[in-house]
Amino acid sequence: MELTELSMLELGKKLGSGELSSVEAVRASLERVDRFDGRVKAFLRVDREGALAQAEASDRRRKEGRRSGPLDGVPVGLKDLFLTEGLPTTAGSRILESFVAPYDATVVKLLKTAGTPILGKLNMDEFAMGSSTENSAFFPTRNPWNLETSPGGSSGGSAAAVAARMVFGALGTDTGGSIRQPAALTGTVGLKPTYGRVSRFGVVAFASSLDQVGPMTRTVADCAALLQAIAVPDPRDSTSTPVKAPDYLAELEAGVKGLKLGLPREYFELPGMNAEVRTAVEGATRALEKLGAQLVPVSLPHTKYALATYYLVAPAEASSNLARYDGVRYGLRAAGGQNLLSMYGRTRDQGFGLEVKRRIMLGTYALSAGYYDAYYLKAQKVRTLIKRDFEEAFRSVDAVLSPTSPTAAFRIGEKVSDPLAMYLNDVFTLPCNLAGLPGLNVPCGFTAAGLPIGLQVLGKAWDEARVLRIARAFEREHDLHRRVPPLGKA
Amino acid sequence: MSVSDFQPVIGLEVHAQLLTRSKIFCGCSTEFGAAPNAHTCAVCLGMPGVLPVLNEKVVEFAVRTGLALGCKINPVSIWARKNYFYPDLPKGYQISQYDQPLCEHGALEIEAEDGVRRVRIRRIHLEEDAGKNVHDAGGGESLVDLNRSGVPLVEIVSDPDIRSSAEAGEYLKALRDILVYLGVNDGNLEEGSFRCDANVSVMPKGSSQLGQRVELKNINSFRFVQKAIDYEIGRQVEVIESGGKIAQETRLFDAVRGETRSMRSKEEAHDYRYFPEPDLPPLRMPEGYVERIARELPELPRAKLQRFTASYGLPAYDVKILVGDRELADLFEKTQAAYGGPAKKLSNWFSGELLRMLKEESTGIRALRFSPAQFAALLKLVDGGELSNNAAKDVFAEMFRTGRDPKDIAGQKGLVQVQDTGAVEAAVDAVLAANAGEVEKYRAGKKQVFGFLVGQVMRAMKGKGNPALVNAALKAKLGD
Question: Predicted ipTM?
Answer without folding.
Answer: 0.95
